[in-house]
Amino acid sequence: MTLIILKSVCFYILFYNKRDKYFILKIHSLFILKKTGLCLYSRNFTEEFDNLDVNLISPFFSAIFSFSSDIIQRKLEELEMAGLRFNFKVFKDFIFVILADSSMSLLFVRTRLDSIVSVFFKVYDQLGDLEQYKEIENFKFDNLIDSIITGEEEAFKSRDIYQKIIDHFKNLLFENEIIGAALLSTTGNIIYTSLPTDILLTSLKELEIRFMSGATSLPEMFYALENGQKVFSSIIHVSKQISFLIVLLFESSVPLGMCEINLKNVAKKIKKLI
C-alpha cells in the first residue's frame, strides 16, 4: 500500500511494509539565491526546519561555493552531512538549493531542481530585470513550486493510466503471483510501491545509476536476498518520452525462469495499459 499525504505543502511519501513500519522520504527546504549571497526565495516543506534562519544559511552557501571554485576548483552539486543532503544547481547568476534527507532519490531531487530553474525563469523573465527583486513573494509561484516538489505535475497528468497499473500490481499481489512491486518513473518519482524500504532504496539507486550512466538499454536485472527471495527489475520504454523501472519481488520458492517470464508479462501488460 502506498500513501501520498500532502500536509500543507509538506512532501511525505509513506511506504508500508510487512513489519508495520513506515519509512519517510522528505524534501525539507528550497532556496533560490543570487551568487552574491542574497536569498531571493525560500520555502520550508516540513516542520523540521521552520526555525532555520535564511540570514545564516546564505553566507554558508556563499562560503562553500567560494571554497569549491577557488580552492578545489570543482563544481559543487551536492553536500551531505548528518543524514541530510544539500543539492545545488547554478544557472546564470543564481544558485538553486534543495535540502532533503540523504535517503531521498538523487535522481528525483535533480529533476526537481531542473524544473524549478525552468519555472523560475519562465515566470520572472516576464517581469523584467531580476536584479530589482530582493525577496520574492508570489502565491502563484508558490503553487508551481509545490506541484514540482511533490511530483504532482507528473502524477496527475497520467493519473488514470497510473491507477490501471497500480490495480494490476494489486491483483498480482492478491493472486500471490508476487509479494511486492514498484513502479518508478525515470525522473525518480515513486508512482507505486509495496516493497520493503531497503529494496525500494536499492531500486532507486539502480534507477539513478542506469540513467546517469546512460545504461537504460541493459536487460532486466536480478538479485537474491539472504532469505532466498528474488528481486527482478527492468526498464520499459513506452515511447521516446516515457520510460519506467518496474521491480518485482518473488518468494524464494518461485523458479528463476518463472520470475523472468512474469517480469516480461508484467512489462507487456503495462505497455498495453499505457
Describe this structure in words.
Mean pLDDT is 78; it is low at 1-24. The chain folds into 2 domains: 2-150, Beta-Lactamase; 157-273, Dynein light chain 2a, cytoplasmic (Beta-Lactamase), CATH 3.30.450.30. The protein starts with a strand and ends with a helix. It is elongated. The protein contains 7 helices and 12 strands. The protein is an alpha+beta fold and 274 residues long. It has helices at residues 54-70, 106-124, 139-150, 152-155, 159-174, 197-212, 256-273, and strands spanning 2-7, 10-16, 22-34, 39-44, 78-81, 84-91, 94-101, 180-185, 190-193, 221-224, 230-237, 243-250. Strands 1, 2, 3, 4, 5, 6 and 7 form a 7-stranded antiparallel sheet that branches.
Q: Could you state the order of secondary-structure elements as H and E?
A: EEEEHEEEHHHHEEHEEEH
Instruction: State the end-to-end distance.
Output: 22 Å
CATH topology of the largest domain: Beta-Lactamase
By CATH reckoning, the class of the largest domain would read Alpha Beta
Question: What's this entry about, in short?
Answer:
It contains seven helices and twelve strands.
SSE blueprint:
Layout: E1 2-7, E2 10-16, E3 22-34, E4 39-44, H1 54-70, E5 78-81, E6 84-91, E7 94-101, H2 106-124, H3 139-150, H4 152-155, H5 159-174, E8 180-185, E9 190-193, H6 197-212, E10 221-224, E11 230-237, E12 243-250, H7 256-273
Antiparallel strand pairs: 1-2, 2-3, 3-4, 3-7, 5-6, 6-7, 8-9, 8-12, 10-11, 11-12
